[in-house]
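Input (TauD/TfdA-like domain-containing protein):
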Amino acid sequence: MASAVAPSLQPLAELPRVDSVSATPMISYPSIEAKFETDKYLLREAMLVMRKDNHECLPRGYPNTIRTPAVWTSDTLDVEEITHRASQTDVRELENAVHSFKASKLGLNELSPGTFPLPNLGYKLREVSKTIHEGRGAAIIKGLCPSDYTMEDNIIMFAGLSSYVGDQRGRQSALGDVLTHLYSTRDKSIQDPRPGLSTHGLPFHNDHCDILALYVMETAVKGGKTRWASGGQIYNEMARTKPQAIKVLAEGDWPHETPTKAVKYLPLMFQNPDEAPFLSFTRFALTGLPTYPRGPDSPELSPEQADALDTLQYLAEKHAVEIEQEKGDILLLNNRDVLHARDRIEDSPDTSQRHLLRLCLRDTEYGRPIPEDLKRRWGDIFDNDQNEHGKWVIDKDHDSSFVSSSKFDALFTNDETTGSHG
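Output:
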């Protein structure tokens, strides 16, 4: 069942004294951290409201309202509506396709509808892809049982099924990893684990690909719940109540830190002609993490940027849908339309069994054009020439060069990615 996850509001602290001539607060604005803090956000917002130069207007060409099926709240999204349950016939068809692919002796990079035949289920999956792109922006497939198969068979089944939803698979590392295992690392020698491989909570964000595909091999014992929020709903509420935040998000002066500790300036909100604006961001690339801070030369966010970034988190929490994950679920998200977050995993790293498989997908039939500012960061991961040699890790545990944030980033040679923060 879907349920609203609303932030608990605390009383505002006393506002700072204001200089009567310049209308500038006598103290600095509250800082912004990796973890969203409601009190700091509300205080900073109140301080900015007092400024006379805090104009309320949308950027030129941006709509007052986004009107698509992907605009929803926890009250209006029926999770059952986007849930597809695989029948026994569907499962047998998948199993037959796995056996057929293995018999072909082809490599995993060759997985496609042509090499993984699903004569009946394939049509349903194409409809799922259409719904993800033109409907609610998300889908859940239930009915698989990972315990019935080997790890290799699970990977073949997941990637083969996913090839009907997105015919292109994106790279997820500098070494060309196509498949990622997400789990809480037990390696105590790693002091800076990447966020997705730790027990830390993840604030709302989206991944740099069209479709995020996750296969739940095992859930956390406690915590780690997934939450989704409609980017269109967040935009509409901002446009109505705080349009100046949209203007800030659309400016190209956000200092993203890259793996080489260089700074890449990009907006957080993008718009193609004749399409609704959409968000593409990860909070940690802008704030750093306590275990992996930004470099000393990376600029701090302005008060307006900190306010806009926190507004995204605040509104996402306000309208979020909590998704009850079950073992065997496949979760599919359109990153143009839906933000996602994960609560802190309360299992200890020594006992946590949480394990998901992740693919980054693009559907060349239904996918939307990639804006120029995002082509290097988003579009190049789908370079077909490089993906012919994509790397597939079958065993659950990645080596330390993939788990450690600093080691992961050290393998990149360009500044067109957010690396371990992304």
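Residues 34 and 193 are 15 Å apart (CA to CA).
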